[in-house]
Design goal:
single chain, 123 residues, mainly alpha, 6 helices, 0% strand
């Protein structure tokens, strides 16, 4: 067990050394967490444009996750970009069946599109 631990530790150290020396190049960046869009409200304040860009990046990293799209909608709506946010939902509505989501998230999506964006049929 100890031998395995030391071997693993040596391998990690060697890979770090290669990365630091330029042999391995940049380490791949981890995809942002899907919850990161709304989490920004509780963190260090961001410029609205930066916050919306963070959400766009999260959606781009998790395009099939409906929750990421809904969180972006909430943030964009918060910053007064509701028409643009609604347009993104209208575009998404065409492909919603291909997205990964729970029934609650699907309900949130349909509520947002129908009640908020269409204003009961006006939009």
């Amino acid at each position: 067990m100890t031998r395995h631990f030391h071997a693993s530790r040596a391998l990690v150290g060697f890979l770090a050394l290669l990365g630091g020396c330029g042999f391995g190049g940049e380490l791949p960046q981890a995809r942002p967490l899907p919850s990161g869009c709304l989490a920004q409200f509780g963190g260090e304040p961001l410029d609205p444009g930066e916050h919306m860009a963070v959400c766009d990046h999260i959606v781009a990293s998790h395009p099939r996750l409906l929750r990421a799209h809904m969180d972006r909608f909430i943030v964009w709506q918060h910053y007064g970009k509701e028409p643009e946010a609604c347009q993104k939902l209208f575009d998404l509505e065409k492909t919603v069946a291909t997205l990964t989501s729970t029934p609650d998230v699907q309900e949130d999506f349909h509520f947002s599109v129908e009640v908020i964006c269409r204003k009961g049929g006006d939009g």
